[in-house]
Amino acid sequence: MTFRTHRRRFLGQSVALSAATLAPAHLRSTVAAETESANDRPGLALVGAGRMGHNHMRFAKGMCDVVAVCDVDQNHRDKAVQNLSGGKARGVNDYREVLNQKNVDVVYIATPDHWHAKILIEAMFAGKDVYCEKPLTLTVDEGKQVRKVQQQTGRVVQVGTMQRSYLDLFVKAVAIAGAGRLGRIHRATVSIGGSSVSGPIPTAKVPTWLDWNQWLGPAPQSPFRLVADPKADEWNLGKTNAHQNFRWWYDYSGGKMTDWGAHHVDIACWAIREAGQSDELVSIEGDAKTPVPFADGYPTKSDQYNTAHSFAMLAKMKDGTELQINSEGRNGVLLEGDRGRIFVSRGDLTGAPVEQLKDNPLPEDAIAKVYRNLPTPYNQHRNHWANFFHCTRERIEPISDVTSHLRAIDICHLANLSARFGRSLRWDAETEQILGDDEMNSLLARPARSGFETDFS
Hints:
nine-stranded mixed sheet; 457 residues; Gfo/Idh/MocA_oxidrdct_glycsds
């Protein structure tokens, strides 16, 4: 299926999605269902069929056909092929095979973080549109590469920061800020929880169903580690440096800072921008505790989780706005302005400016304006996928775009560097360099392991 025929085939569906946005709530499900004909679905390749990739596909159900599944864990791969395609999808170990598969229109990347940028870049060069779980990057330098290639290729890339499609919570909170109901925002506080701790984890024999070398990919060479948990499920295994617990190792992720931080820092920055203020970073300082000692920015022990488990980091913007990132506190985003404050989480939206909406509602187009007047046939996760497919058809920027995501996630990356070195930093947004600190600047990029360099052709 060529891109041209794919786009022509979806023009009618685009009109239906727009109608769904304008239709009364009780008619939206009917209108949306009519857009999901079995003949109008793009072919999707899932790369990374662990818990998140496997489960999140349920939100895209009906909008696409899963034609390929790639995972280095044979058990995960086989399960996804059966559950997501009834056994029809092609199962492979190497993602490059699906990038060359002609019936693959879009790629969904749900691998561990250290693989994201490489697969994303190569998928864009292969002519695929991409939905990639957050964060897009492991380092600031990867962000520069991703941004350049996305602009060069014009591919549609949706970041999996699906809170941007929580219309009645996060989008509404941003709309409140954009409507001036908070006044000037002087501080945003995001509480995201801390990373897990483990104690020493011994090396273990690599299971026969896991291609460990391919799992590591561009990350440094490291032995497989595991303390098995008899209560763990197939997704988790136990305390390990693989599968879900990759998040607690700086070789593969940035801990909670880039996990939940990717969500909440993004919302805070979005609200700040909608309020007409600057989210251009100038400095970060704070305190952090890590499970193991660090020297020169690197953990001194390699046999246990090492991402920061306790932190209170303060980022300052060009116009003086402050962004506090905490491991403690109730999970969510607190926006404080000179006219009021609101708190928003995945469960509620509270504060005096919210209560005042009863007597002084937002303008009718406030939510639509914040959501770029894009179709909203659903809410939350499912709408995020619908937004992606709509934008691939129309060749327009999705709600979770590369540029805004990188502004937020780079703050998280830099907060991690401040935590790893135990000192503050000053940031030059023009040069994308840390001022006066060569040691920190050396960790803005990371060389890929030999044989796993990114293909930029």
